[in-house]
């Protein structure tokens, strides 16, 4: 790794274990014992870099940039500098509002890589990418050291699939950086999560977990206006539970945080379509994105930006009061359009 990389402030943190935390043998108790915190209102907007995210006005798209050799859908496609930058530029041109860069695969049974390997994958690309695009960049990581180094390299927010539970330094680090964070629900870790799906109260436990992590984040010093929540589609959920989350997504509104949903190309869509190839699940992903929008999602995390941009524009026009902003060539119908 180049000695020119900036690792300031990293020495204050102990190097974490290269293994995921060992999950408790006892699953979280149903959330009736952990009442969901109710807040007075959700803020209407959030500034990330120079972009204003006005929640409820339209759906925002987070483009997935996996710089990994083993992600479930596109592993190995974008783990070189040229390929990663080209993909990011294409996503931005297709309508991405955020580019989410991750160096650690979180597919089921994925092995956790070392801290050095994750830094080596993510930081060089972030340093170049920051000079090439103006939209916000998020870093997909569960490690505080990676989060801090990524923000130093130009990232603007942190996307933590563990909701801040894998690394005890994550929430204090994000608080010190003053950046937004996505808190996702999960049980166990990617190696064990698919064996931990015996919920007594699915949405109650998801809401309870997220409420507790919102409380922990604000206690650590993170402004609640900078917290985004994610129910964790596919993370310790089986087929039926993934569908239930979509149907009951409005229940998460009581947490008064923007909601991110990540359905893109996932296995529950493959089961519905009988489609084993993740890249051939675009239309199923489109349907899932529509369902998420109609049930209150604010951000969609997706692979196929051009297609999901059109899906979200149409869904927003149907659902939301404010019409979407369209390119000028879309405003006038062709003479044959009504034939």
Key traits:
339 residues; alpha/beta; TIM Barrel; eight-stranded parallel β-sheet; disordered N terminus; disordered C terminus
Helix content: 25-40%
What is the average of the pLDDT values? Answer: 85
Number of domains: 1
Could you give the order of the helices and strands? EEEHEHEHEHEHEHEHHEH
The order of strands across the largest sheet is: 8-7-6-5-4-3-10-9
CATH superfamily: Dihydropteroate synthase-like
Number of strands: 10
Explain how this protein is built.
The protein has nine helices and ten strands. It is of the alpha/beta class. Strands 8-7-6-5-4-3-10-9 form an eight-stranded parallel sheet. Helix 8 (282-294) runs parallel beside helix 9 (305-319). Mean pLDDT is 85; it is low at 1-40, 328-332 and 334-339.
What's the helix and strand layout?
Blueprint: E1 45-48, E2 51-54, E3 60-66, H1 81-93, E4 98-102, H2 115-132, E5 137-140, H3 144-153, E6 157-160, H4 170-177, E7 181-184, H5 202-220, E8 227-230, H6 239-248, E9 260-261, H7 267-273, H8 282-294, E10 299-302, H9 305-319
Parallel strand pairs: 3-4, 3-10, 4-5, 5-6, 6-7, 7-8, 9-10
Antiparallel strand pairs: 1-2
Helix pairs in contact: 1-2, 2-3, 3-4, 8-9
In brief, what are we looking at here?
It contains nine helices and ten strands.
